[in-house]
Amino acid sequence: MAWQACDRLRCDNCPEYISGALVAWAEKKGTQLAFIQPGNPQQNAYIERYSKTVRYDWLNYHCFESINEVQGCATKWLWTYNHERPNTAIGGKTPKQQLALLAH
User: Fold this and answer.
1) Domain at 1-51: CATH code
2) What are the two backbone dihedrals, phi and then psi, of residue 10, each rounded to the nearest 5 degrees?
3) Alpha-carbon distance values, 80 to 15, 21, 66, 85, 94 (Å)
4) Cα–Cα distances in angstroms (integers) from residue 43 to residues 38, 39, 47, 55, 59, in the given order
5) Which PANTHER family match (predicted)?
6) Domain segments of the chain: what residues?
């Protein structure tokens, strides 16, 4: 999977996001880090909700031995999430079904 460059990455103030390694990576990629205000996860609500879903649907259930294993599991889960898993926020449809409806 190739990384697609972005101008800005919005994130919260968790230790993994304020680390020197991420700052160095962002500088190398030409990406600005934009931090939400501490204690205000609602400023990044869609991502916070998605992260919670990822953590509770699959990440907490596996002990990975390599980044390739994580990427493979993530790819399978994301396909299921977008194609098979009904989403109550969009009327019980999958994201793929919702996108198809919006395209017409």
Assistant:
1) 3.30.420.10
2) -90, 130
3) 30, 32, 22, 6, 9
4) 10, 9, 9, 20, 24
5) INTEGRASE CORE DOMAIN PROTEIN, LOW CALCIUM RESPONSE LOCUS PROTEIN T
6) 1-51, 58-104
Q: Which residues contact 35 (CB under 8 A, 6 or more apart)?
A: 10, 11, 12, 13, 17, 18
- What is the C-alpha separation between 81 and 59, in angstroms, rounded? 14
As given in the structure block, the two tokens for residue 29 are 């990629």
Locate 79 and state its tokens: 């396909």
Quick: pLDDT tens for 33-78.
988 888 888 888 888 888 888 888 888 888 999 999 999 999 999 9
| pTM of structure | 0.59
Tokens of 38: 């501490």
CA distance 85 to 41: 25
How many angstroms separate the CA atoms of 8 and 17, rounded? Answer: 13
Q: Is the dihedral of CA 91, 94, 54, 20 positive or negative?
A: negative
